[in-house]
Design a protein that fits this description.
The complex is a heterodimer of chains A (176) and B (176).
Chain A (H helix, E strand, L loop, with lengths): L1 H25 L9 H13 L16 H15 L4 H12 L14 H32 L7 H26 L2
Chain B lengths: L1 H6 L1 H18 L18 E3 L7 E3 L8 E6 L4 H15 L3 E7 L3 H11 L5 E5 L3 H5 L7 E5 L5 E6 L4 H16 L1
Parallel strand pairs in B: 3-4, 4-5
Antiparallel strand pairs in B: 1-2, 3-6, 6-7
Helix pairs in contact in B: 3-6
Membrane topology (chain B): Single-pass membrane protein
InterPro entries (chain B): Periplasmic_diS_OxRdtase_DsbE, Redoxin, Thioredoxin-like_sf, Thioredoxin_CS, Thioredoxin_domain, Thioredoxin_ResA/DsbE_sf
Subcellular location (chain B): Cell inner membrane
């Protein structure tokens, strides 16, 4: 029963959702291009460029008058045969870097782009330092670290003889 | 003891991050430097509001420091700004208006009603000069030095306090 009412509600609400979506689209004019490739570039550019009046809307999504002006300029420049880069430059020279959703890599933004990689390198160094220190500590605890070359060789000889001995004993036991 | 202090490093980094982000919260996201600072005032060829047959271009702004104010009859804050602009004109500041995306009739009526502080108002019905200036909402003001270079940009309306605290000192600075 509950499922049934939920379905009914959904069906009743559907036209509202569809219509409001249509209304939102209707506010933004359609640009016609002869070349289908330009349509795609227009879509890309208007979603990459940011409306200067709005906090977080691309010019392709915004209803504000300035976004409409910018869309019209993007379309005009595309028809003029300008490259994406040239069109972006035209917008940045007027509205500043704010107009780009992806900040460009230059002398003022290398920190912004480089910081994540820098942090990874620092993190790796810290982990490496911890691991190396722990390994050294373990070596010291196992006692080998304190021996000189002569003692170490003696230790090796003793342990190998012991191993050989135990091996021999085991073999004795196994052979009836 | 030294080991203990090292443990505080992450906390310190965290504190720096908190201060950085907290300051960002209080910042006005609309307050951005114009992309046109220290650049030539864009070229234009527009008629004046008063006389449709009188064409003006960039040479209008050469020779003395000028405050270019972008306004429109449709813009409510422009009305609030007019008393301050009149006060600036009284102080001897040269003002040039840009009647942005307006009709001649409405623009003239606006000046009749609220006073006319401008030596001349350029008529920009399509917003082309506004676009080249990167204007995304009137009122906006640009201080242009005697060589026609943009030196200061004021977004939004000039408050009575701004007149004495910001605009007049800037004008003095660039007059020298």
């Amino acid at each position: 029963m509950a499922a049934m009412t939920r379905w009914l509600m959904l069906i009743c609400l559907l036209p509202i959702v569809v219509l409001s979506g249509a209304a939102a689209l209707a506010a933004i004019e359609v640009q016609d291009f002869d070349d289908p490739a330009l349509i795609q570039r227009y879509e890309d550019l208007t979603s990459r460029l940011r409306c200067p009046k709005c906090q977080n809307e691309s010019i392709g999504a915004s209803n504000s008058p300035i976004a409409a002006d910018m869309r019209a300029r993007v379309a005009a420049l595309l028809r003029d045969g300008q490259s994406d880069r040239q069109i972006e430059n035209a917008m940045v020279s007027r509205f500043g870097d704010y107009a780009l959703y992806d900040p460009r890599l230059d002398t003022r933004t290398w920190l912004l782009w480089g910081l994540p990689f820098g942090l990874v390198v620092i993190g790796a160094c810290v982990v490496a330092a911890f691991v190396l220190r722990r390994r050294r500590l373990e070596d010291r605890e196992s006692g080998i670290d304190g021996l000189d070359e002569h003692e170490r060789r003696r230790l090796e000889a003793l342990t190998s003889r012991h191993d050989a001995g135990s091996q021999a004993r085991r073999n004795d036991g196994e052979a009836p | 003891m030294k080991r203990r202090l090292l443990l505080l490093i992450p906390l310190l980094l965290f504190a720096v991050l908190v201060v950085f982000l907290y300051r960002g919260l209080a910042k006005d996201p609309a307050a951005r430097d114009s992309a046109l600072l220290a650049r030539d005032f864009p070229a234009f060829s527009l008629t004046t509001l008063g006389d449709p047959s009188r064409m003006l271009d960039r040479s209008l702004l050469e020779g003395q420091v000028t405050l270019v104010n972008v306004w429109g009859e449709w813009c409510p804050t422009c009305k609030q700004e007019m008393p301050q602009l009149l006060a600036l004109a009284d102080h001897g500041v040269r003002l040039v208006g840009v009647d942005y995306k307006d009709t001649r009739e409405n623009g003239r009526r606006f000046l009749d009603e609220f006073g006319n502080p401008f030596e001349v108002s350029l008529f920009d019905p399509d917003g082309t000069l506004g676009f080249d200036l990167g204007v995304y909402g009137a009122p906006e003001s640009f201080l242009v030095d005697a060589d026609g270079v943009i030196r200061y940009h004021h977004t939004g309306y000039i408050t009575p306090q701004d007149v004495d605290d910001v605009i007049l000192p800037e004008v003095k600075k660039w007059q020298q």
